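[audit] Reproducing an earlier prediction to check determinism. Same input, same settings, fresh worker. If the tokens differ from the archived copy the diff job will pick it up downstream; this log only records the rerun itself.
[audit] input (262 residues):
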Amino acid sequence: MLTRSMGWGITLILGAAAMLGSGITAMAATQRTESHFPVNGRPVVVIQNVANGRIEVKSAKTQEVTVIASQNSDKINFEMEQAGDRVDVTATTLDASAQPLDLETSLQLTVPEETELQLKTENGLIYVEQVTGDMTLESVGGDVHLKEVSGYIIVKTTAGSLVCTQCAGKLDFKSVSGGAQFLQPALNKVEASTSFGNILFDGDFIRTGLYSMKSSKGLVEVRFSGNDSFDLKAQTTMGTVDNQAAAFLKPDSHGAFHRGMK
């Protein structure tokens, strides 16, 4: 029994030492830079990230754009430049043979509350919170999470999904295999299209709003309140239309289902 206890103790000590060594290596390899760009009015922020990493944008009551860039190796180069109220951040690969771990990056931005965004990344989460302004967000394999944003929002992904919480304005979403969730929206126009992903709309419809949600082979789920008024056209190419709100929907003279105000 004593031998076993000592054996486990040695194993734990070695494991802790290995973890500590790994942590020291990671800290030594990580490079962090912070840049500040004074701006006036509504700035435009453009990010081109060819690496793998997260882009996070949050607003503050400030008149400057703050960029914190972190990278795991010197095989990635960040170029930052300002022209008037436009700030460009570009990440480029310096070594074509670099391993995926070496290409991981992280960008944290603090911007004025009213800012236009053009963000593009290969893989990695795009997260935007409490920003007002037109924005175009593109990702190949990463997801896009939006919270309390408003404006004309364009989201394009190949495999990444969209989660839009308390978003307002107009939103255009296109994806091949990614899905979309609209939670507590205040959107007056939605155009969502995906080939294989699922779409969920959970919230109220604005009376004069336009909503189009299409999925070729996925599920489209719409949740609404009893006081919503809208015209509905539901169709499918290969699946079935499951209407679980027949008691609330009444067809109009044109054949479309209509939910009127009480």
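[audit] rerun output stored. Observation attached for the diff report: Residues 76 and 93 are 5 Å apart (CA to CA).
[audit] end
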